[in-house]
Amino acid sequence: MVKLDDFEFDGIGALEHNVITGQVESLVNWARARSSWPASFGLACCAIEMMATGGAHYDISRLGMEVFRASPRQADVMIVAGRVSQKMAPILRQVYDQMMEPKWVIAMGVCASSGGMFNNYALVQGVDQIVPVDVYAPGCPPGPQTLLHTINTLHQKIESGELMRRRESSGAGAGIMVEQLDGQGDSLVTTLGRR
Predict the structure, then answer these.
(1) Judging by beta carbons within 10 Å of its beta carbon (0-12, 13-18, 19+), is residue 100 exposed, middle or buried?
(2) How many CB atoms lie within 10 A of CB 15?
(3) What pTM was estimated for this model as a whole?
(4) Domains of the chain as residue ranges with CATH
(5) What is the mean pLDDT of residues 35-62?
(6) Which residue of 14, 65, 162, 193 shows the fewest CB atoms closer than 10 Å?
(7) N- to C-terminal Cα separation, the chain
(8) What's the burial of 158, exposed, middle or buried (CB within 10 Å: 0-12/13-18/19+)?
(9) Distance between CA 167 and CA 161 in Å, rounded?
């Protein structure tokens, strides 16, 4: 609660930021973080987990991302889910180039992040060789919980303005790696539960 003495001493600086006293940049970043629309680029098994995230159980719509756009001109977040072949790489870059600025990229799964178990000439060893990746979602495949955690991390970075500053200074993505939250890698006892 702001006291009258504080207001007289500090002026408007004593007030908490709200719609009237907030900075325009803060309001724009807040709106960007809550209205990001993904362009789905599902290429393999990770795409099934991405579709599950859009389902009723996980409800991605509470993050303002319920509409997966088929047109890159209406999207500002690209979720690359799965392995990228050398033939698909130019198409991926073309879709990325057609997206409006500002735009962000999530690499979903180990195949999109580093090529995964497919270390051969036909697959790109990491989508960051084609487009700047902002957040990596680990796992094979990462579950909906991990993708939601990745999206929340991206929203926090968009709202803070850190991604815009980093992109302007380096021209590359943020390269943030999040932890896997869907329980893959746990022991069988924790997966099946105890009686």
Answers:
(1) exposed
(2) 13
(3) 0.76
(4) 21-180 (3.40.50.12280)
(5) 83
(6) 193
(7) 50
(8) buried
(9) 10
